[in-house]
Each structure stands twice: as C-alpha cells, then as structure tokens.
Amino acid sequence: MIQLFQQRDFGDKINTTFQYITQNFRSLGVSLLYIVGPVALMAGIASGVMQSNIFDLGKTAEDAGRDSSAPFAVGYALALSFFSPAFWITMLFSLLAILAVSLATYAHMKVYARKTQPNAPTSFTGTVDISVAEVWEEMQPLIGRGVLISVLSAIISFIATMFFVIPGVYVGIVLSLGLVVTTFEGTDFGETWNRCFALIRDKWWSTFGLIIVMGIISAVVGMIFSVPAGIIGILTGMKLLPNITSFWLILGNVIATVGGTLLRALIYVAIGFQYTNLVERQEGRGLLSAIDSIGTSPTQPRASDEGTY
Q1: Rounded CA gap, 280 and 271, in Å?
Q2: Domain for residue 152, yes or no?
Q3: What's residue 122's pLDDT?
Q4: In this structure, are residues 199 and 282 in contact, taking their beta carbons and an 8 Å threshold?
Q5: If DSSP codes are grouped into helix, strand and coil, which group holds residue 260?
Q6: Structural domain boundaries, residue 206
Q7: Are 260 and 266 in contact (CB under 8 A)?
Q8: Within a domain: residue 183?
Q9: What is the spatial distance between Cα 106 and Cα 201, in angstroms, rounded to a whole number?
Q10: Domain annotation covers residue 275
C-alpha cells in the first residue's frame, strides 16, 4: 500500500502516481467510467455533431464557390456552426467532464487515505477495496464547492493574465491545488485560496514542473484515442470518403473525448500527491499518524497469521 501523506521529491511523485494508478487501476478506472463516462460521452457526441455540421458547410461552400456572395454566406454559416447549440453543449459538457474527473480522482484518493490509515481494516491480500458507491458518496458534497471554486479560479486567473500573462500563470498554478484542498479539508473558496498560497510557498516551480510533465505524458498517451477521429478527418478532407456519415464522425469524437478525459486522471493523481507532499512537509500529518499508531494492535489479522490452535 502507498502512504499518501509522505515527503517526496520530484521523481518520486511521478513514480508514485503511476504506482497508485497501477495498484488501483480497477477501482479508479471503474469509478471514472461510471461517474465521468456519461458526461464525457455527451461531450463527445456534441463534438461529433459539430464536426459533422462543419463538413456539411464545407460541401455547401464548395458547391457555391462560383457565386459572388458565397464568401459572405460561408462566413455566416461557419459563425452559426461555432455558436450553434452543439458548440455550447460541447463546451458545457467538456468543462463538466474535466471537473468530474478531477473530483472523482481526489474522492478516490481520500477514500484510499482513510482506508490505509494505521490499523484500518484491509483485505487479506493487503489491497484496498474501493467501490464506485464509496467514491460517489465522497464526491457528492464536493460538486457545488467544486463548481464554485473552478469558476472563480478561472475568472481570477483570466483577470491576472491580463497583467502581462505571468501573474495569470502564477495564480493558475497556485489554484491548481484548489479542488484537492477542498476535497481533503472541506474548505470554502476563501479558505481554499489561503490554503493554496500557504501550501505552495517555496514550491511553486516544482508544482509547475509536475503539471507540465504529467500534462505532456497525458497528451502523448491520449493521442492513441485521437487516431480514429484523425483518420476519418484526413480521409474526408482528401475526399477519399465522400459519403461518410455523421455516425462515424461522432464515434471518432466520442473515442477521443472519453479517452482523453479519463486520461486526465494522471494529472490529478500527481497533483494529489503534490498536495499530500506539501502538507507532510509543513505539518507532518503522516508522521504524526504513524506515531499515534505505535503500540496499537491491528484490527484484522494479516494473511500470514495462522491463528490459534
């Protein structure tokens, strides 16, 4: 089992991220699939519909190419496409999917932390059993605070970006800890704001680097899910699939959107370990918990215990 609240250097946080995902692949994957999957599915369908509309507009523009008013008509049609209901539905569900995957990941880590406390019951195999119901129960109270914190953080970061960009980047990295802080500590926005700045003190660059590295890894692996949509788009653009149906465009976008969204869990698990690392450095929570457990007996015998005969 992995001790969450522990001091880790940069490489350890990346290694522990993959170790956590490997050890909890089934419980975390199923939780994300059940909780985040439907939202990501809606985003993928809306994105596919929007792309299908764009291809239809392209055909219309080609047919009207000899008309002198065609440029104005095509420009107007493209504007309608990007500001159509499909566009706004895509944006809405994409943002909700990103919020859902972050909250579900942090809720899973919180349940894991609770179940791996000293003397907490575990299975005879030493693994931690976490159900979808437990993750959802932990996540439900976070949804309202998560939406509020995400919206306010985005607004503040945008405003800060107006001042020569750099302040926006700085604030954005600081507030990247916002959702994990409110998950583990139940803070409102004001408390979360203060807590983020207190935790990240002297550790901004390591947080920035961790997010960049895990973001690159997530994007590279996510390209696998973008292959079907890319192939369909290229073949259609080259007119090798002139009669392609909207179904295949939607299917390609669904695979890309759902796969890419679920892979963002890599980034959030890493941010979660950065949070526990910063808390341990400042407060020694894991060390205090270990000290408190000295001299106590386990609540469940280990697999190697043979019992009394």
Answers
A1: 14
A2: yes
A3: 54
A4: yes
A5: helix
A6: 10-31+102-292
A7: no
A8: yes
A9: 22
A10: yes
